[in-house]
Specification:
Blueprint lengths: L16 E10 L2 E6 L6 E5 L7 H8 L7 E11 L6 E6 L7
Parallel strand pairs: 3-5
Antiparallel strand pairs: 1-2, 1-4, 2-3, 4-5
Length: 97
């Protein structure tokens, strides 16, 4: 089944804000599905990125599984076996006005 409205993974860019649905909580962070893109595994490592203000905020108010949140593409890494790709996510900065 092909969904013509899904964007290809080649359009993902570091620093881009994406909507993601949380798919699981892990001891190290969370996994998510990127909404509007071809299916891809994505994760946010709260241990490794925990000093970032947006990640600290997310860790304090951990979004539930099934919740849609805005996240930022930290890194897109292609693996040896296509179409495997890993998207490292982070959180938007929490600007306090």
């Amino acid at each position: 089944m092909t969904n013509g409205s899904r964007r290809p993974l080649t359009e993902l860019r570091q620093g881009e804000t994406v909507q993601a649905t949380i798919t699981s909580h892990q001891p190290w962070g969370l996994t998510a599905k990127l909404n509007g893109y071809e299916p891809v595994g994505a994760s946010l490592d709260m241990i490794r990125r925990g000093s970032e203000p947006g990640v600290q905020h997310l860790a304090q108010e951990l979004p539930g599984v099934g919740t849609t949140v805005d996240l930022v593409v930290g890194e897109v890494r292609a693996w040896d076996h296509k179409p495997w790709i890993w998207v490292d996510l982070t959180a938007p900065s929490q600007a306090e006005d």
